Automatic annotation (TrEMBL):
The protein, known as: Hydroxymethylglutaryl-CoA lyase
NCBIfam families named among the record's database cross-references: PRK05692.1
Family matches, as CDD domains: DRE_TIM_HMGL
GO biological process: ketone body biosynthetic process; L-leucine catabolic process
Residue ranges of domain Pyruvate carboxyltransferase in the record: 2-269
Cited InterPro entries: Aldolase_TIM, HMGL, PYR_CT
Keywords: Lyase, Metal-binding
UniProt family annotation: Belongs to the HMG-CoA lyase family.
Length: 294
């Protein structure tokens, strides 16, 4: 069974113009959990002035009714974020490193090499605390500043992350430019240098290739796929981005292909309406418009 990591409370909301109140974020998370989600990227511990949508991370974690068997994930970029995540009681941390220097410069005023060193420190600390930690390699498929990204850059970040203690490695199509042939190439490369790590993939549907990429990853044998309720989210450096692949649409696709996910599609569908009302526009997910079949 392929697992689904719900990312709407973090990657979905972080770039939205409408800043949701803490209570609305908690409701979103608890609705997703009620629909069967068992891993959810609930918050990120980043500088509140740089990402105002995530400024209430501690309050969200404190206000949640924690469901048994659910892993609440906190995204971190550095040791300070990691310490905040541990204090807030997350079940796992997700460390992000971009594979391209252009994105690293624009997003964090740094380089891939420098941010990999930071990630190594955080991953080692998490391993020492027996806290599950994943490494997401952003811009694995392409960069808005540097263009094409050499797969070897992705593989090298994965190699160093695995050596430092990453239990899971994700390739991320941050700006939605990837195609299925890239998916297979990158997953093969990462598996070669991180044979013990779980494999996860994160796709955006900016150019309508996100679901094709998800199927390619599924057929390759990936362990987990990221998706976002309503298909919300995106990158501030990807103009006209439509967002992450939608959880509802992905679940429908997987179920029709005979792959169980543990998620209840009937319970997922109303979340898109909740998000549309909260954000003030109709979210991109298509299944809530057309309805399920069969």
């Amino acid at each position: 069974m392929v697992g689904i990591v719900e990312v709407s409370p973090r990657d979905g909301l972080q770039n939205e113009r409408e800043l949701l109140e803490t209570g609305a974020k908690i409701e979103l998370i608890e609705r997703a959990v009620a629909a069967g989600v068992r891993r959810i990227e609930a918050v990120s511990f980043v500088h509140p002035k740089l990402v105002p949508a995530m400024a209430d991370a501690e309050a969200v974690m404190e206000g949640l009714t924690r469901a048994p068997g659910v892993s609440y994930i906190g995204l971190v970029l550095n040791r300070r974020g990691f310490d905040r995540a541990v204090a807030a009681g997350v079940d796992e941390v997700n460390v992000v490193v971009p594979a391209s220097d252009g994105f690293a410069k624009a997003n964090q005023n740094s380089t891939t090499a420098a941010l990999t060193e930071v990630a190594e420190e955080v991953l080692a600390e998490a391993a020492g605390r027996d806290l599950f930690a994943s490494l997401t390699i952003a811009t694995s498929f392409g960069c808005p500043f540097d263009g094409e990204v050499d797969p070897e850059r992705v593989v090298e970040v994965a190699r160093r992350g695995a050596a430092a203690g990453a239990k899971e490695i994700a390739i991320a199509d941050t700006i939605g430019v990837g195609v299925p042939t890239q998916v297979r190439t990158l997953l093969d490369g990462v598996r070669a240098v991180a044979p013990e790590a779980r494999m996860r993939a994160h796709f955006h549907n900016t150019r309508n290739t996100g679901f094709a990429n998800a199927v390619a990853a599924l057929e390759w044998g990936v362990d987990w796929l990221d998706s976002s309720n309503g298909g919300i989210g995106g990158c501030p450096f990807a103009p006209a981005a439509t967002g992450n692949i939608a959880t509802e649409d992905l679940v429908y696709l997987l179920h029709r292909m005979g792959h169980p996910t543990g998620l209840d599609l009937d319970a997922l569908l109303p979340i898109a309406g909740f998000l549309s009302d909260a954000l003030g526009y109709r979210v991109p997910a298509l299944l809530p418009r057309a309805g399920a079949f069969g």
